Structure formats: C-alpha cells, structure tokens
Amino acid sequence: MKKLQWTGNTVLITGGSSGIGFELAKVLSEKGNKVIICGRSAEKLEKAKREIPSVHIVQCDVSLNSDCEKLFNWIIKQHPDCNMLINNAAYANHMDISNDDEFVNKAVHEMRTNFIAPVTLIRLFLPHLGMKKNSAVINVTTGLVYLPKAVEPIYCASKAALHSFTQTLRLQIKNLPIKVIEIFPPAVDTPFHQGRVPKIAISVESAVKEIVAGLEKNKNEIRVAGSKLVYAISRIAPAFGLKKINEL
After folding, report:
1. Please, are residues 60 and 38 in contact by the beta-carbon 8 Å criterion?
2. What is 10-245's CATH superfamily?
C-alpha cells in the first residue's frame, strides 16, 4: 500500500473557507504543506486568509463545469507542484419531494456540487497527479452513505454516489501512483448545517484531528467518531439502523 508523507505537499481543498475544509487547511499548513483553498464566497475566503496567512485562495463555484476547468487551469499555471486534491465542498437541503416545488432544481444543484464537481475535478487532475510523487485524491463523503436521513434525501444520495465512485476509482487507477482516500465524517458542528446543528455533532477540531490521524496511519477509508458505529450497524442490522438514524 502506497505510504504518503504529510509534509511538503501542495494541497487543493474545495470548500476550504469554513468547516472541515478550513480546519484541514489550518492543520495541514501547520504541518509544512502549501495549501490552496477555493470557495464561492470571496468574503469568506479573505477571512480564511486573515486567519491562515500562508494559505492561497481562489474564488470558484465547483457546481459549474466552467469554474472547475478555470480552477484546474489556474492551479496548473500558478501552482504546478499541486499533488493532492481534497474534494470537500458540499451542500445540503432539507427537502420533501411531495411538497417542495423547487425540489428538482435543488436536487440538481446538490448533485452538481456534491457529486459531479468531484468527478469533474478528478478527471481534470488525474493526468497531472499521475506525474507527481506522493499524490492523492481525497473525497469527503459522510457516514450517511450507509444509513441515509430522509430529511436530506439528495445530499445522502449524492454522497452515496461519490462513495461508490471512490471505490471504483481506486480500482480503475490502481496502476497509477495516486492514492485514493475516502473520509466519512459524522455530524460536525460547522456552518454547513445552516443553523440546524444536530445535538450529536462533534467539534470540527475533534473531527479533523481524527481525520489527520487516519491520513498519517495511511488508511484508505477514514471513518470518524460516530461514523464507525453507523457503518457497523448498517452491516449488522440495517433496518434498525435506518430507523434509529431518522429518529435523531
């Protein structure tokens, strides 16, 4: 199994201006890596830059194919040493398919952000990463790929799609020098929840500490905190688990 080094890299993190992406940027920067973050909000990116002066920022809406292509071209020109891609950007809506007139439009946006964007960026970056030493593609999914929550139907479906794609990607590029890693966070106390932070949410610092520990242990799949239990229950008693996750 390819062993990665976690210092001296050039890492691109999508959705890096807040939450897990921001905390990862902070920790990886402290470990001696050059970190580039992208996000839709210039204001949030500038705030992140003030808090992590060494970080490089670029505004980008990854839900747009054209922005993904612009991001890739900018990285190749400005940071050709980039050897790691972390697909972290994500969006979720609480939706009811029966009563939401905008359900399909919202679903398309979520799928483009959570699934199509990572697939697009991976396809763009693969030839470049294949020429780099210590290269990696890291996809952030969720423990909900195992037991989905009904209130976030498209978020869970899009992350399940990314989970499946990550597994097949690992098989398809097994002969390339690119390590494929998947991270399964639990509920984490971040702005992602738009004010609806679950009571079971853990701190972003705790989540990233466990993520980085998993990266340094060279794991291909990193299940964080409660995601370990969700995974186990989904294997042993999936119907029970599905009922309980939707009662939380």
Report:
1. yes
2. NAD(P)-binding Rossmann-like Domain (3.40.50.720)
